[in-house]
Amino acid sequence: MLLKKHLTKNGFYSILKLYASINRGISKQVSYYYSNIEPFRKIKSKHPNKLNPYWVSGFVAGDGSFVLGLRRNTMNNKRFGIYYNFNIAQDSKDLKLMKLFISYFKCGKVILRMNKSISRCDYLVQDLNSIMNNIIPHFD
């Protein structure tokens, strides 16, 4: 963009090729007007056997979340309970990677969620002991 290549026809087509390469691919509307756009070839990456702690911190900063909240007790509507949640969400194609977090943090589970438009997987830790003893010390 500094060289203003995005303002040229070739630069615009390069951006469309990148757009066609993302998870969901090119939209039907864009495909209608630019049917000749081919996505960039995707490079298959291997997942390591062991995760680098610095990489984990950066990855979680981008795709992870901590949640602490209050929820009404289903048995007694007048009482509240505290819930804890550490979550990392990714497209389902990264299922193997998400399973590496289980061995890295020595806790949690991976859930695969699928619907008509998208499939995703989540690494999830919901118990306080695991969050306090396994997750938080990594970021401390």
Strand order of the largest sheet: 1-2-4-3
The CATH superfamily of the largest domain is identified as: Homing endonucleases
Radius of gyration (CA) equals 21 Å
CATH architecture of the largest domain: Roll
Q: Specify the number of helices.
A: 5
Plain-language structure description:
The chain is an alpha+beta fold. It folds into 2 domains: 1-42, no CATH class; 53-139, Endonuclease I-creI, CATH 3.10.28. It is 38% helix and 24% strand. The chain contains 5 helices and 4 strands. The chain has helices spanning 9-21, 28-33, 53-63, 95-105, 128-139; strands spanning 64-72, 80-91, 109-114, 119-125. The protein has a 4-stranded antiparallel beta sheet with strand order 1-2-4-3. A hairpin with a 7-residue loop joins β1 (64-72) and β2 (80-91). The radius of gyration is 21 Å and the shape is elongated. The two termini are 38 Å apart.
Write a concise synopsis of the structure shown.
Helices cover 38% and strands 24% of the residues. With 140 residues, the chain is an alpha+beta fold. The protein has two domains: 1-42, no CATH class; 53-139, Homing endonucleases (Endonuclease I-creI), CATH 3.10.28.
